[in-house]
Design goal:
Order of helices and strands: EEEHEHEE
Strand order of the largest sheet: 1-2-3-6-4-5
CATH topology: 60s Ribosomal Protein L30, Chain: A
Structural class: alpha+beta
Number of strands: 6
CATH architecture: 2-Layer Sandwich
Largest sheet: 6 strands, mixed
CATH class: Alpha Beta
């Protein structure tokens, strides 16, 4: 089995990697805003792209870890997340949300594991 790597915008790391029926992806916002809801929506749209390049989608997520610079903004992030993930519990992954320092301008970073 070959390892598939999805190039990202930064040197030395990829946005996605898949191997043996599993796919790992990471995304941050693609827009310049200090609004957590908008950054989350942008990040999730980027995840859709990466997952699609690996031949999977959000309905096959197994796990998600969401990093926020300010955990007090979790409600805003959750609004974007629940809109994106949908109403069907059969498509909901296990999910954790933690506070973390992130690169300047980034308020949200999301890491997922999906079946491919």
């Amino acid at each position: 089995m070959d390892i598939t790597r999805i190039r990202g915008p930064y040197t030395g790391r990829n946005s996605g990697t898949s191997y043996n029926g599993m796919g790992w992806a990471v995304a941050t916002t693609q827009i310049d805003t200090d609004d957590v809801f908008e950054q989350t929506a942008s990040t999730l749209a980027r995840l859709d792209e990466i997952l699609g390049q690996m031949g999977t989608d959000k309905t096959r997520l197994l796990s998600a870890t969401i990093y926020l610079t300010d955990i007090a903004q979790k409600d805003a992030m959750d609004r974007a997340w629940t809109t994106w993930i949908g109403d069907d519990p059969a498509h909901w992954p296990q999910r954790a949300c933690v506070q973390s320092g992130l690169a300047a301008g980034h308020l949200v970073e999301i890491v997922v594991l999906a079946a491919v």
